[in-house]
Specification:
Largest sheet: 6 strands, antiparallel
Helix content: under 10%
Structural class: mainly beta
Oligomer: single chain
Strand content: 25-35%
Distance between the termini: 28 Å
Number of strands: 12
Length: about 240
């Protein structure tokens, strides 16, 4: 699994672009995943904007911040143990003060969405997932939960997370091996490649953003971290 390196274009794709994904004969319905969470198959082919509408104050702030660092799939092949896995790695960072997150991190409150290029719409979508804290090694081994039952992110440090995309959340016409492929495999233009949105929520995120605000004001802050890669309208985040 490696970092997907793209060349950014100055022009963002129009949300109303032609949709290449062909709708199924019958509307698809969301369905539970065996590993936990829900496959949002009803979104397949939907050409929505990749960054969801904020659901509270502070969601566009860079403190705390969720940053997607890599995504990709691993296929062990017929002679090696294990199954094909598609994972996304991200980092939680803070600037001003420590952020303490209960383990498991954002249990059942993680969402992954893959969008195809040129108005193709959603290629895969799952909600209700859980992030795994991993080390910085190339294979991203899970980190033991501290005795406190919490992970602490200090200013200037980062907490590395891994989220696995279940195969059942991939839309018809795609599979885990091709959801990350560009429309032109030889292109180095981000417009030809998919966009990934990762969100996670935790009450500690709201408390961090609210700081010393009173109870009524604190409730107006968002408890969600959102990361989009590549991010098109950065000035509007």
């Amino acid at each position: 699994m490696g970092l997907l390196v793209l060349t950014y274009s100055a022009t963002a794709p129009e949300p109303g672009a032609a949709v290449a994904w062909q709708a199924a004969a019958e509307p698809l319905r969301d369905s539970p995943l065996a590993s936990g969470g829900t496959a949002q198959l009803a979104k397949c082919g939907v050409n929505e904007w990749q960054r969801p509408e904020p659901r509270g104050k502070g969601e566009g702030s860079e403190d705390p911040q969720l940053v997607i660092t890599s995504w990709g799939y691993y296929d062990p092949g017929p002679k090696m143990p294990g199954e094909l896995r598609y994972t996304v790695r991200a980092a939680v960072r803070t600037d001003n003060r420590p952020l303490v997150l209960d383990a498991p991190v954002a249990e059942g409150r993680v969402t992954l969405d893959f969008y195809g290029p040129h108005g193709e719409g959603v290629r895969a979508s799952a909600r209700g997932l859980t992030a795994t804290v991993v080390d910085s090694g190339p294979t991203g081994k899970p980190v033991d939960v501290p005795a406190s039952g919490r992970f602490r992110v200090d200013p200037g440090e980062q907490l590395l997370l891994e989220v696995e995309l279940p195969a059942g959340a991939v839309c018809p016409g795609h599979d885990l091996s091709d959801i990350g492929k560009c429309s032109d495999e030889h292109s180095n233009d981000a417009l030809d490649c998919p966009t990934l949105t990762l969100t996670l929520s935790d009450p500690a995120i709201r408390a961090y953003r609210a700081g010393t605000a009173d109870g009524d004001t604190a409730a107006s802050f968002s408890d969600r971290l959102v990361a989009v890669f590549p991010e098109w309208n950065v000035d509007q985040v």
